[in-house]
Amino acid sequence: MVLQYCKDGNLGDYLNKFKNHINYEVKIDHLLQISRGLLYIHSSEKVHRDLHSGNILFDDVPYIGDFGLCRSADDNKKQEIIHGALPYIAPEVLRGYQYTKATDIYSFGIIMNELITEKTPYDDDIPHDPLFLTINICKGLRPKISEDTPKLLNDLIMKCWDAKAENRPT
């Protein structure tokens, strides 16, 4: 497999490199590009299953990468192993349910907030104990949304990471 070299690394690298120097217009454009990539994946009836900041690659514009866990949206095989980066995994997956397009949308909501706030999810909120984080995500814990976030974006982020998968946008 050959991939394009992305000089700005992944989303985390990009945010560290340009911290406090990314204006809202650019952030919105990046989110639009990521959402278009996710729409392409979903319109192909696939689920990424591992959408997190390490898999958003930057070369002036963002690209979704790492399709190693990508599967058909109608893959109904029993879920035996949870894949992905814990802060980005939807609560229903943590409870043992299947990955779906809605679980990708949940992950996208976490990524949206990370890009807007320029902060790693849950970095300041709780101890870095996977069991503690898992339990609290299932109980409704989400990363803090900055008070500076415009209401429209705030509402969209909250819809994307709604506890009920059926309430998330498609």
TrEMBL record:
<dbReference type="GO" id="GO:0004674">
    <property type="term" value="F:protein serine/threonine kinase activity"/>
</dbReference>
<keyword id="KW-0418">Kinase</keyword>
<dbReference type="InterPro" id="IPR000719">
    <property type="entry name" value="Prot_kinase_dom"/>
</dbReference>
<dbReference type="InterPro" id="IPR011009">
    <property type="entry name" value="Kinase-like_dom_sf"/>
</dbReference>
<keyword id="KW-0067">ATP-binding</keyword>
<dbReference type="InterPro" id="IPR051681">
    <property type="entry name" value="Ser/Thr_Kinases-Pseudokinases"/>
</dbReference>
<keyword id="KW-0808">Transferase</keyword>
<keyword id="KW-0547">Nucleotide-binding</keyword>
<dbReference type="GO" id="GO:0005524">
    <property type="term" value="F:ATP binding"/>
</dbReference>
<feature type="domain" description="Protein kinase">
    <location>
        <begin position="1"/>
        <end position="170"/>
    </location>
</feature>
<dbReference type="Pfam" id="PF07714">
    <property type="entry name" value="PK_Tyr_Ser-Thr"/>
</dbReference>
<dbReference type="InterPro" id="IPR001245">
    <property type="entry name" value="Ser-Thr/Tyr_kinase_cat_dom"/>
</dbReference>
<protein>
    <submittedName>
        <fullName>Kinase-like domain-containing protein</fullName>
    </submittedName>
</protein>
